[in-house]
Write a structure and sequence with these properties.
Helix content: under 10%
Radius of gyration: 17 Å
Shape: globular
Largest sheet: 4 strands, antiparallel
CATH superfamily: YVTN repeat-like/Quinoprotein amine dehydrogenase
CATH class: Mainly Beta
Distance between the termini: 7 Å
Low-confidence stretches: none
Number of strands: 20
Strand order of the largest sheet: 1-2-3-4
Structural class: mainly beta
Number of helices: 2
């Protein structure tokens, strides 16, 4: 982890007395955004953090294509956008909780949540029809806590959703499913590399045989998420 990111983590720890419970973060260039139940934090490497109150309704996901195009989503279908002049509410087509937001371009952005997926085309958000595989992946998203979903968009013809013990991929024509078996917990996040593979992380659970959070690594397009991997020996 670069020293600037470590400094940002330390800054959040120093401000643990704040009412905000942080849900997730996103970095673009030298800037990191984090969202939670009371504020949005914007941290610039070498310059510290600023906090903006968000009003009523927790935020669970954040993504940015740059400093002037930052999106956050949360409870009750809430969508906020920052174009460089502050945070503003954006019309949402759903009242369901949204947990993750990600895109490959300013006019190609998706959000997923409690049995819902949305798409932004550059002008407005609209709901995406769920097929059986996508519906199953999102069916129990956030059933215990609003962290049980993952989303990564590589292009208009390739993006991934992680949720209820499976990862599904849009290949440009249909959804492919990576069913990972009962030993895996609901997913919390994933990130995909340039070869179509990457890392995913499951939530901890109180049910055997694997109650701890698990990292799952990508090893190839057809077997991308088939091998569980132990936790690192130390975290940043």
């Amino acid at each position: 982890m670069p020293s600037g990111w470590s400094a940002c983590v330390r800054a959040f720890r120093k401000e643990s007395a704040r009412a905000t419970s942080w849900a997730t973060c996103w970095g673009a260039g030298t800037t990191i955004w984090a969202v939670g139940d009371a504020s949005v934090a914007q941290c610039t490497i070498g310059a510290g953090c600023t906090h903006t109150p968000i009003g009523t309704g927790a935020l669970y996901g954040v993504w940015a294509s740059g400093a002037n195009n930052v999106w956050a989503v949360g409870a009750g279908g809430r969508i906020l956008r920052n174009t460089g002049t502050g945070w503003n509410a954006v019309t949402s087509p759903t009242s369901r909780a949204l947990y993750r937001v990600h895109g490959s371009a300013p006019d190609h952005i998706y959000a997923v949540g409690d049995s819902v997926m949305l798409q932004f085309d550059g002008s407005q958000w609209a709901t995406v029809k769920l097929d059986s595989q996508l519906s199953d992946a999102l069916r129990y998203a956030g059933s215990v806590a609003p962290t049980k979903a993952g989303l990564f968009v590589r292009s208009k013809d390739e993006f991934y959703v992680a949720g209820n013990r499976r990862i599904v991929r849009w290949n440009g024509f249909e959804w492919d499913s990576f069913a990972l078996g009962k030993e895996h917990r609901p997913f919390a996040a994933l990130s995909i590399g340039p070869n179509g593979c990457g890392l995913a992380v499951t939530n901890a659970d109180n049910m055997p045989p694997t109650p701890a959070a698990t990292l799952v690594r990508g090893i190839g397009p057809s077997g991308c998420f088939s091998q569980p991997m132990g936790a690192p020996t130390s975290w940043p």
